[in-house]
Amino acid sequence: MAQTKILLDESEIPTHWYNIVADMPNAPAPVLGPDGKPITPDALAAIFPMSLIEQEVSAERWIPIPDKVREIYRLWRPSPMFRAHRLEQMLGTPARIYYKYEGVSPAGSHKPNSAIAQAYYNKEAGIKRLVTETGAGQWGSSLALAGQMFGLQVRIYMVKVSYEQKPFRRSMMQTWGAEVFASPTNMTNAGRSILEKDPTNPGSLGIAISEAVEEAASRADTNYALGSVLNHVILHQTVIGLEAKKQFEKVGDYPDMIFAPCGGGSNFGGAAFPFFADRAAGKNVRLVAVEPSSCPTLTRGHYAYDFGDSVGMTPLLKMYTLGHDFMPPSIHAGGLRYHGDNAIVSQLYNEGLIEAVAVPQVATFEAGVQFARAEGIIPAPESCHAIRACIDEALRCKESGEAKTLFFNLSGHGHFDMASYDKYFAGELEDYAYPEEAIRQALDHLPKVG
Ligand SMILES: *Cc1c(COP(=O)(O)O)cnc(C)c1O
To answer: Which domain holds residue 377?
Structure first.
């Protein structure tokens, strides 16, 4: 039987991140200010260190990974890749299925790949505190960990519904020394304005971002850190795909299709973009972003300039959006409840260079349980989206007899999500209908620029 666990040694941790901008057929659309004109990098200097702003707009293909970041990466990188023999057998598919497992990081997901890098650059810039938002708690716990490693204080605005559903993620953040608040709070203007209209508002990533950005902009010793959506976050995540390429080389295989769950696009871009680079060399790999059908940003959103947050404090990004004030249903894959998507992911999708598919909640847990029973690892609800789409393709291969090579990113484990699995087993999980009316209303509020 072919190899099951495909490992690299520490010396094979990438030395550079890969920047897809160097290989895109068209330059990325500019980021706009409130006046509709492209912003200059120093407009972001109140909340980000210049090193990260430079990465945000860089067109260099390779960006060196600082030694101090690689040293911390060694705690869990290179992450393992697996050939899913037992899942293939269970499905009776001729397809070969591989997955890269990012749940081996201390926080249990891919997010520390960027958190460690962001904490490093902020520390180098003399910053003392970082503030951020978190949905399911994956990003907050990753930044808490990173802050602890570099001696930075971390404050986290956690989406209220997740704060209540996932109390142990809050304990993790506190264990790593961070302060955590349920957002919307009454500590910021953004939070108070939401609570005035709706005192029981369950929160959203967009609202929590508004709160964190407001605080970072008002204090010189404090910067903001974002766990997804921005280009530099995807850049840091490319260690996933770069390692995966080496792992495929080791077993003499190459993916026909790559699947990753897509919230803001960071693990999707991180796993998939390094393979995009091979297209110039004639490889025809299909890159598929998988999103929830209750928050169908790429598959049902508009391609337009919109705010990154709910209140309208951030610059305008050209992206697929459901409208910055769209309130997604409270699904259990909290990390996928975001109204927009990374601008590069959006542009590549608009140009037909990548694909997207939306899957309903119950079917994702079904896939996650099937995967856990075959492969042992219990996946995060977000990761279950990629597993669903990959299993669907493997079943199509069974019908057609095609022996495709399929690869997905297992972005995290689900050990803190067992309450969601409980709901699934009790038959209490819902498939939300496509929230057409809510999306239509939110799209009416898109800023009129661009
Ligand atoms: C945050 C998260 C996601 C979604 O975020 P992206 O930026 O789109 O990658 C997916 N999976 C897990 C486990 C997460 O924590």
So the answer is: 4-10+67-108+232-443
CA-nearest residue, atom 5 of ligand 1: 263
Strand arrangement, sheet containing 5-6:
5-6, 81-83, 96-101, 405-410, 257-261, 286-292, 355-359
Name 110's Cβ contacts closer than 8 Å, sequence gap at least 6.
Answer: 102, 237, 240, 266, 267, 270, 409, 411, 412
Cross-strand bridge partners of residue 183 = 159
Q: Is the pLDDT of residue 123 over 70?
A: yes
**Distance (Å) from CA 104 to ligand 1 centroid:** 14
Evaluate if residue 273 carries a pLDDT over 70: yes
DSSP E strands in 102-173: the ranges are 129-134, 153-159
Regarding the beta carbon of 267 and ligand 1, being less than 6 Å apart is answered yes
Give the DSSP letter of residue 318. Answer: E
- d(CA 304, CA 306) in angstroms, rounded, equals 6
The answer to whether residue 382 sits within a structural domain is yes
126 in any annotated domain? no
Count: domains in the chain: 1
Closest CA to 373 of 86, 81, 83: 86
Select from 6, 101, 88 the least CA-distant residue to 383. Answer: 101
Q: What is the pLDDT of residue 310?
A: 83
380 lines ligand 1 (CB under 6 A): yes
CA distances for 150 relative to 64, 87, 228, angstroms: 19, 40, 20
Sheet strands (E) in 384-444: 405-410
Residue 1 has pLDDT above 70, yes or no: no
Specify the residue with its C-alpha closest to ligand 1, atom 10.
382
Q: Is residue 23 part of a domain?
A: no
CA of 176 to the centre of ligand 1 (A): 20
- What separation in Å is there between the alpha carbon of 401 and the centre of ligand 1? 32
Of residues 90, 73, 325, the one with CA closest to residue 197: 325
Q: Which tens digit of pLDDT belongs to each residue from 371-430? A: 999 999 999 999 999 999 999 999 999 999 999 999 999 999 999 999 999 999 999 999
CA separation (Å) from 347 to 135, 258, 364? 25, 18, 27
Please tell me if the CB atom of residue 261 comes closer than 6 angstroms to any atom of ligand 1.
yes
